[in-house]
Design brief:
about 250 residues, alpha/beta, six-stranded mixed beta sheet, two-stranded antiparallel sheet, 7 helices, 10 strands, about 30% helix, globular
Length: about 250
Amino acid sequence: MLNKIDFYYFSPTGGTRKAGEFLAEGISENVNPVNLGKEKGFSQADGEMAVVAAPVFGGRIPAFVAEKLKKVDGGGKRAVTLAVYGVRAYEDALVELNDAVSACGFQVIASAALVAQHSIVPAVGEGRPDEQDAAEIRGFAQKVLEKLETDPDGVFQVPGNRPYKQWGGMPAAPVSLPTCKQCKKCVEICPTEAISVKEDAVETDAEKCMLCMACTAICSERARILPSPLQEKLEQKLGPLKDVRRANEFYL
């Protein structure tokens, strides 16, 4: 076990952080968590190495994450990257994440594509990462530690293409129902500052919103939802995946 590592993550609905914690805690006794969705700036990483975890949106990592990582100085330290996706596919996300992490000065020595509950259609991948996933990820952590001792500079490859697939997001944003109590938790958690309360009404700037679903996850009143037509369309599209248990993929 290492003494201390840094754990950089963006996890709007919790799945990415949970998966990353299984790995980070399997590698090091002490984990320094850095929430890319909240932190305003970053200094030199002070852990022995880093774990960097990002969710997958449409086969890519969010542009928001790539921009945040530009503020991180890896200082030549080693890193493990995790692309966490909701069963469908991760496509170019892992190779894109590796490029972004390498560009800020880390040496990526291992990667994984991990499955978590889908943020928009929760019946897809429901409950994941679960105990089976946790055991697999902890086993991967041991292999990472072994690689650090025996072949830390060993070359490996991950699936993905350059240039990355085109993904412009979806032209929609969550809305607030009349039951909204205007507690402003959604305003506080929104990583792109897309939500505001004006004249007793909650407004969302669809141009800023990246559909990360953080606002819906934090709403205890369940008063933040996607517009019904979009929700129904996605449930119909992803419905066939409800009974699919996609395997985690590990790369050393």
